[in-house]
Design brief:
The chain has 174 residues and is an alpha+beta fold. It has helices at residues 2-25, 98-103, 152-173, and strands spanning 26-28, 34-38, 50-54, 58-64, 71-76, 79-83, 109-114, 117-127, 135-143.
């Protein structure tokens, strides 16, 4: 009787640990932002790779979220799909959510469209300009085809800042 209980406990623990691992690398369309991080970069692969099942066309978005300047290569089923955008290097912003990071133009970002199907998405950190080897970022999948443009509030902030700089330069010249 004691050995059966021990066997049951061992099997239950194995199933529990296997479930935790499976949840960590899967994300779903419409499931929101998933945070991931890496250590000892650049040139390191984020592990584990992500699995995504899409019943219909979806847009995958990825954004840096720790120090600006970090860039990624994103592979879908072992094929390079995108390299995230270049940005200003090394500003310590530390976005607290995926939405904050996506809205902040200083962060590297990218997106791509996938048809219905099951995919393995691998991410490789290719640039860490600050010299700090660790970092964090977000990934999500949205239903349908979503344009890869900044949030309207970010565009307004960028235009306002640029207008202020140009106005100051014009005033100094006058």
């Amino acid at each position: 009787m004691k050995s059966r209980i021990s066997l049951f406990v061992v099997v239950a623990l194995l199933v529990a640990f296997a479930s935790v691992g499976a949840c960590a690398d899967d994300f779903s369309v419409g499931g929101g932002w998933v945070y991931f991080d890496w250590y000892a970069g650049p040139g390191v692969w984020v592990t584990p790779a992500f699995s995504l099942s899409a019943d219909d066309t979806c847009t995958v978005q990825i954004t840096d979220a720790f120090l600006t300047g970090d860039r990624f290569e994103v592979y879908v089923d072992d094929e390079l799909t995108i390299t995230t955008s270049a940005t200003v290097d090394g500003l310590a912003l530390g976005a607290s959510t995926g939405d904050d990071a996506w809205a902040e133009l200083a962060y590297s970002r990218g997106c791509f469209v996938l048809d219905a199907g099951r995919y393995e998405i691998s991410i490789k950190n290719i640039l860490i300009p600050t010299g700090y080897p660790d970092g964090g970022a977000y990934i999500r999948a949205l239903d349908g085809v979503v344009p890869c443009v900044p949030e309207p509030s970010s565009v307004v902030a960028l235009v306002s800042g640029l207008g202020g700089v140009l106005g100051l330069a014009w005033r100094r010249r006058s």
